[in-house]
């Protein structure tokens, strides 16, 4: 069976949107890890963070990630998934890991136009505060993302090119 393609990248990098497009173009199933977590915990991720804290969330996230063992298709992960425990080793061991790379400014543009309250880490931040947060957090997380099997500049890579890279 084909190994799955795991999409990784910062919040707002388009993992879910592109994951769906990619799966569609390749005729593969699509699965969203955050969505699977929400089904499992029975509440939204911000609610879970508020009730149980981030450490518990990361433990559940890891469990749900490992439950995907043996699945095929395109699987989008959460922005923090590869950056905790040895999750990145696990992802690389079990699939092809694709990093949708953006600059902090590009992420800022995209996140400024999204509902920041849906993302617990962003806590309603806007403007310069949001940019500073992205710069700091991306610097922490980039070393994990950069270990991916394939790294693409998401803005300038047409979908067809991505499909070819993954064939
Ligand atoms: C998180 C990103 C979210 C979600 C959770 C934590 C993060 O996923 O897993 O809110 O720490 O970056 P998206 O990257 O899909 O927003």
TrEMBL record:
<feature type="binding site">
    <location>
        <position position="141"/>
    </location>
    <ligand>
        <name>substrate</name>
    </ligand>
</feature>
<feature type="binding site">
    <location>
        <position position="16"/>
    </location>
    <ligand>
        <name>Mg(2+)</name>
    </ligand>
</feature>
<dbReference type="GO" id="GO:0004765">
    <property type="term" value="F:shikimate kinase activity"/>
</dbReference>
<feature type="binding site">
    <location>
        <begin position="12"/>
        <end position="17"/>
    </location>
    <ligand>
        <name>ATP</name>
    </ligand>
</feature>
<dbReference type="GO" id="GO:0000287">
    <property type="term" value="F:magnesium ion binding"/>
</dbReference>
<keyword id="KW-0057">Aromatic amino acid biosynthesis</keyword>
<keyword id="KW-0460">Magnesium</keyword>
<keyword id="KW-0547">Nucleotide-binding</keyword>
<dbReference type="GO" id="GO:0005524">
    <property type="term" value="F:ATP binding"/>
</dbReference>
<comment type="similarity">
    <text>Belongs to the shikimate kinase family.</text>
</comment>
<comment type="pathway">
    <text>Metabolic intermediate biosynthesis; chorismate biosynthesis; chorismate from D-erythrose 4-phosphate and phosphoenolpyruvate: step 5/7.</text>
</comment>
<dbReference type="InterPro" id="IPR031322">
    <property type="entry name" value="Shikimate/glucono_kinase"/>
</dbReference>
<dbReference type="GO" id="GO:0005829">
    <property type="term" value="C:cytosol"/>
</dbReference>
<keyword id="KW-0418">Kinase</keyword>
<dbReference type="InterPro" id="IPR027417">
    <property type="entry name" value="P-loop_NTPase"/>
</dbReference>
<dbReference type="Pfam" id="PF01202">
    <property type="entry name" value="SKI"/>
</dbReference>
<keyword id="KW-0808">Transferase</keyword>
<feature type="binding site">
    <location>
        <position position="58"/>
    </location>
    <ligand>
        <name>substrate</name>
    </ligand>
</feature>
<protein>
    <recommendedName>
        <fullName>Shikimate kinase</fullName>
        <ecNumber>2.7.1.71</ecNumber>
    </recommendedName>
</protein>
<keyword id="KW-0067">ATP-binding</keyword>
<comment type="function">
    <text>Catalyzes the specific phosphorylation of the 3-hydroxyl group of shikimic acid using ATP as a cosubstrate.</text>
</comment>
<comment type="subunit">
    <text>Monomer.</text>
</comment>
<feature type="binding site">
    <location>
        <position position="34"/>
    </location>
    <ligand>
        <name>substrate</name>
    </ligand>
</feature>
<feature type="binding site">
    <location>
        <position position="119"/>
    </location>
    <ligand>
        <name>ATP</name>
    </ligand>
</feature>
<dbReference type="InterPro" id="IPR000623">
    <property type="entry name" value="Shikimate_kinase/TSH1"/>
</dbReference>
<keyword id="KW-0028">Amino-acid biosynthesis</keyword>
<keyword id="KW-0963">Cytoplasm</keyword>
<dbReference type="GO" id="GO:0009423">
    <property type="term" value="P:chorismate biosynthetic process"/>
</dbReference>
<dbReference type="GO" id="GO:0008652">
    <property type="term" value="P:amino acid biosynthetic process"/>
</dbReference>
<keyword id="KW-0479">Metal-binding</keyword>
<dbReference type="GO" id="GO:0009073">
    <property type="term" value="P:aromatic amino acid family biosynthetic process"/>
</dbReference>
<feature type="binding site">
    <location>
        <position position="79"/>
    </location>
    <ligand>
        <name>substrate</name>
    </ligand>
</feature>
């Amino acid at each position: 069976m084909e190994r799955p393609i795991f999409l990784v990248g910062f919040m707002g990098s388009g993992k879910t949107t592109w994951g769906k497009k990619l799966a569609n173009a390749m005729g593969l199933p699509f699965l969203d890890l955050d969505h699977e977590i929400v089904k499992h915990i029975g509440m939204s991720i911000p609610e879970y963070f508020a009730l149980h804290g981030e450490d518990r969330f990361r433990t559940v996230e890891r469990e749900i990630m490992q439950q995907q063992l043996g699945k095929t298709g395109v699987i989008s992960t959460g922005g923090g998934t590869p950056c905790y425990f040895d999750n990145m080793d696990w992802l690389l061991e079990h699939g092809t890991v694709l990093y949708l790379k953006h600059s902090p400014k590009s992420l800022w543009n995209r996140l400024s136009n999204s509902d920041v309250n849906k993302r617990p880490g962003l806590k309603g931040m806007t403007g310069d505060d949001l940019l500073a947060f992205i710069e700091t957090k991306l610097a922490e997380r980039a070393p994990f993302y950069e270990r991916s099997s394939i790294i693409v500049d998401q803005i300038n890579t047409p979908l067809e090119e991505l499909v070819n890279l993954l064939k």
